[in-house]
Amino acid sequence: MLTILIRSLLLVGVAVLTFRLMGKRQVGQLQPFELVIAIMIADLAATPMESLDIPLWRGVAPMLALIFLHQLITLLSLKSQKLRAFFSGTPTVVIRRGEIDYKALRKLCFNLNDLMEELRTCGILSPTEVGTAIMETGGRLSVFPKSSCRPVCPEDLGLSTGYEGIPLTLVMDGQLEKHNLSLSGQKESWLLQHLAECGYDGWHNVLLCYLDTDGRLSVYGYEGKPPVRIAVLAEEEVIW
User: N or C, which terminus of the chain has less Cβ within 10 Å?
Assistant: First the structure.
């Protein structure tokens, strides 16, 4: 039993490592050759787990060979557009100016029910509202509404807006994020002072605390305590 446990842990560790080396794609965004490699890696990891008669290296070695093949194909795809198209395919336009390209759908083996489902997922009720819809190489449908159907944005109204960037998480699960605090240009004493203003005597009892690029600090406590949001920085003090 202990042997099986150790073998399983080792194989799972190698499998996770190989997937990490493949990059940070989601399963639904894998290219065709990446999906094939992922399935083969999973099968190679499962076989030595099921039988103790199979040496461990017979599962690990092919997995490492597959990840080497993946890196090689990825490198070649970066160097050549033709190889990139061969291994990953090319995007296909399935809707142009509200008109469905049925030939393109047949070529992709993508039926109308699937198309309508994808459009509803994107918040589109009718294909006539779509300016362009493109089936990406990873199997994801990118939908762009017509200009007359998209939501109004500040630019359409001639309004100017300020800078809006990624909030800095300063505290998470009661732990101080020192790197993010240094990016904000502030010190721990500064954070403790403002946490005290929000009713907290330290970050150990803070569930989440983040700093927006509008200079506002948001603090969430445990046990359903209502969040607090206060202004702590001027516009010119936002440096990230």
Answer: N
